């Protein structure tokens, strides 16, 4: 959250030059405050795990947030009960006449499929098109980020020769961005994907910018220059044991999968993983909510 100080205080310009968020008295007096409305489109098969992870990040802020859960109606979820979906999730038909401050589109284990081969691609594109007029800011995660770049900017994902799987170093390319305010120059993030969107394809579009990059996994964070769309190609929301569960799941299926990199101590799957990504993950969601949703969304959403 910002600190509120007198407009003419000398510290104001000094703190702003250090990329610290300062709210002047004039701006504070003219702010209208209400709860933020955030829609979570959960595409992950493990819906309860994912909704818990995302909500943990959204809840650890001073902001008041109202969350609606959205599911794809044209796809049958197999890893969650129908009762859970019926009780807690809405379909697009139920929300399409509403407006939201923020929308989060999660990942999905679909990187090896062409987008048009996904059985709910038409419904997803309808939601993404609707978001242009009914959502102030959209946060795309992993496959959701790849899908968003493809739909909105025509940028295709590329297959990786080996799955990017583990905890990887990422370095800031634009440390002045409020999105990564408070980040270390180098930070860790979980990645679990078989495809990527290449750096050169993103920066070729003048409406996009790369915020962070991994030498091992490529682009990790990008955004639109108008701050409408945010693209995170890892899974900062993952818990301590999420990659372990994915690793064990693939082993049980007989998939040839390597041990997640930089995850188990001494690469020993019998040892408990050490969390090295939690603080920046929290900052990422908090910064998005604060600087790109709370600070800029209209008080009356109908005026968007």
UniProtKB/TrEMBL annotation:
Gene3D superfamilies: 3.40.50.880
Pfam families tied to this protein: HTS
Keywords assigned by UniProt, alphabetized: Acyltransferase, Amino-acid biosynthesis, Cytoplasm, Methionine biosynthesis, Transferase
Domain of life: Bacteria
GO molecular function terms listed in the Swiss-Prot or TrEMBL record: homoserine O-acetyltransferase activity; homoserine O-succinyltransferase activity
Reaction catalysis annotation: L-homoserine + acetyl-CoA = O-acetyl-L-homoserine + CoA
Keyword rRNA-binding (UniProt): no
Annotated substrate binding sites: 163, 192, 249
EC number: 2.3.1.31
Site for Important for substrate specificity, residues: 192
Gene Ontology annotations of biological process type: L-methionine biosynthetic process from homoserine via O-succinyl-L-homoserine and cystathionine
Site (Important for acyl-CoA specificity): 111
Localization in the cell: Cytoplasm
Predominant cellular place of this UniProt entry's protein: cytoplasm
Function in brief: Transfers an acetyl group from acetyl-CoA to L-homoserine, forming acetyl-L-homoserine.
Family according to the record: Belongs to the MetA family.
Name of this chain's protein: Homoserine O-acetyltransferase
Organism this protein belongs to: Phoenicibacter congonensis
